[in-house]
Amino acid sequence: MFELLGIPPQALFGQLLLGLINGSFYALLSLGLAVIFGLLNIINFSHGAQYMMGAFVAWMGLTYLGIPYWGALIVVPLVVGATGVVIERLMISRLYHLDHLYGLLLTFGLALIIQGLFRNGFGVSGLPYSIPSQLSGGTNLGFMFLPNYRAWVVVASLLVCFGTWFAIERTRLGAYLRAATENPTLVGAFGINVPRMITLTYGFGVALAAFAGVLAAPIYSVNPNMGADLIIVVFAVVVIGGMGSILGAILTGFGLGIVEGLTKVFYPEASSVAIFVIMAIVLLVKPAGLFGRTA
Amino acid sequence: MNFKTATLAGLAAMLMTGSAMAVDVKLGVLNDRSGIYADLSGEGSVVAARMAIEDFDAASKGINVEVISADHQNKPDVASTIARQWYDEEGVDAIVDVPTSSAALAVSEITREKGKIFLNSGAASTDLTGAQCAPGTAHWTYDTYALANGTGRAMVESGYKNWYFLTADYAFGHSLEANTSKVVEETGGSVVGSVRHPFPGTDFSSFLLQAQASGADVIGLANAGGDTVNSIKQAAEFGITQAGQALAGLLIFITDVHALGLETAQGLVLTEAFYWDLNDDTREWSARFSEEMGGSKPTMVHAGVYSAVTHYLKGVEAADSKETEAVMDWMKSNPSQDQVFGEGSLREDGRHLHDMYLFQVKSPAESAGDWDYYKLLSTIPAEVAFMPLEDGGCALVE
């Protein structure tokens, strides 16, 4: 049997696919961040906590109210998105005239509070959430056993990413949004309610995080730290893709998932650092990120 | 001697003991209060320490004990800073618990430097009582040798001979892998490979597939806490266990089993120093613990804190002082006896010896409800559960 770089090709394909699956989460989360940063200029540090809330609300829905997984996929982003709307109205909207740093500090503080509350209520060991029966089991692809649920994660993530990109870059609503970011006064003069649009955009970004949280609940343990561990990597993804670039966030999300997957084969000890090394290199060569526009 | 002198002598003796028995002791419980080991140590260890103080009735024996606690975030540098501050400024006499081997080794060094006492319950590395042993350090609950010797041996003996390790990339994982490899090879098995994953991790599917590709009979999980939970969950998801490979969770706490659910965890073989449902004593103690901890049962780390603090306080009482050498001497030369571990002893290298237990996780049908998780496979006697004194390489041993 021939080998590629010392690894049998079957194993390599398997690892590439796994990278793609992890990339799905990076893409979904960095997409939400990019939407919020691109349109609100807020660095949303509570994104990881909102992703965690997504998983927890799904668990609570199932445990206390009997809402199944499929219902949770729709209800949870709405519920968590609504909390995002409240946060934007009550707090974030007061910071738009200030430096970025204040938004960052506020959302970081919120993240710590939310995580602390969940930690107090549920402990850190995690809660079990089972894979929906329709997606349990898996398919043998010859080179690896692909759990059906993971395949669904990739598909769902691609659909949502494409939908979001399309809505922002190719529809009239998206055009309003982008225009409102460029010049809110002028857009307001045309009779469009700019503050409400901005609020809903934040709510949408948060809903994306919650959606990723629901997707993650059956495969990672549902625990209060799940977002904190992930969000640092996701920020690196956004920086590499270019702050605020929608397409950049999606492509780098998937791409870095694959790169990380490969590191896990060739030099597993470095897999948690690989993304940051790439970030450092990209920042040196192209400070605005791979897909960013230099302001 | 006439009656008068005898009475006076007796009175004097009583006065002396009375006045000397006012000792102020400060214990610092240092562990993970927010990260992946917070449920297995965390606040529960503080509760266990307080229970030990109350059960010992320290106040009426003239020992005033104060307990403080802090979060070391599983980071050796944070642990070192807090340990120094506690010893230098807060007047802490003994540091208790400290899970995460790398942090525990750091605290042990500082304890040596400051001439204080370190009662470790949460960490696993055998180095604490081996190459890096210290006069004031006692390693109480378990270690990587005991785990390897329990679970590793049991698995090889039931026919799982070829091993592949999934190892957390820090002191604890390395130590556990090394110890288990040794046991596996001694009992006639072999190690076909290993992969080291970053700590803490989230996605283990990549490593699990590498383990699967190795064709080993069993995948040894040399990690802990949330990492083990995720590894086991994902091994089930990727059909690894269904395809015939077994999993050996080398360090699994009851809180991990609780998080996994019996559906996923059933059948796992594991080694622990304590289980709440072992006997009347452990049941009674655990019920009291549960009451203070909102219903959750104690882990062996919590039980170890209770046992260690109890023995320490007896040492302070007997030595009539909190002076490190006197207390440690007493602790090492007298057997320990408490409600959770029963009888035990503290060896000269600082290793605490007590029985260990090999358990198997029940299936959902066998379990009577929440926290009814283990069935006892065998008891590993204290004499063989831990690494022989001469193999540790501790410099305190002549």
From TrEMBL, chain A:
Tell me the Gene Ontology biological-process terms attached to this UniProt entry: amino acid transport
Q: How does it sit in the membrane?
A: Multi-pass membrane protein
Subcellular location as annotated: Cell membrane
Q: Where does the sequence pass through the membrane?
A: 12-39, 101-118, 149-168, 200-220, 232-259, 266-285
Q: Does the keyword Transmembrane helix apply?
A: yes
Q: Name one GO cellular component term.
A: plasma membrane
Quote one Gene Ontology molecular function term: transmembrane transporter activity
In which domain of life is the source organism classified?
Answer: Bacteria
Predominant place of localization: membrane
* InterPro entries noted in UniProt: ABC_transp_permease (IPR001851), BCAA_transport_permease (IPR052157)
Q: What keywords are assigned to this protein?
A: Amino-acid transport, Cell membrane, Membrane, Transmembrane, Transmembrane helix, Transport
For this chain, the family text in UniProt reads: Belongs to the binding-protein-dependent transport system permease family. LivHM subfamily.
**Name of the protein in its database record:** Branched-chain amino acid ABC transporter permease
